[in-house]
Amino acid sequence: MSGELSGEWWTWTDAWMFIGVFVGLRIAFIWMATQAIVALIPEGDVCVTCGEETLPLVHEGGWHLLGHRFHRRFCLSCSWEGVARTASTRHAKRPPKEPPRPHKSRSGRQPAPR
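^ that's the sequence the OP posted. Answer follows.
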């Protein structure tokens, strides 16, 4: 009985393993909760209430702490104001397509005007 009270039944390796698992589970829980909260924030520049396009607002005060992934938006139609996420798939700007070349007739005649 005296051995159980003095701490001889556990080792420091056991203690560090317990601490590691406990801290790992806590970090995983915080990460999952953060992902769930971020998923609740609307994505894109469309109003969540009326579906119209929203306008970006200037970052004033502490809003810049949200970073480039989140931004404040305002809807002119229904006066909704809130935070939105930047779309996860941004399309790279592509150069405009060249206008179609005129079709060259094999007969040598010009096509009729439309």
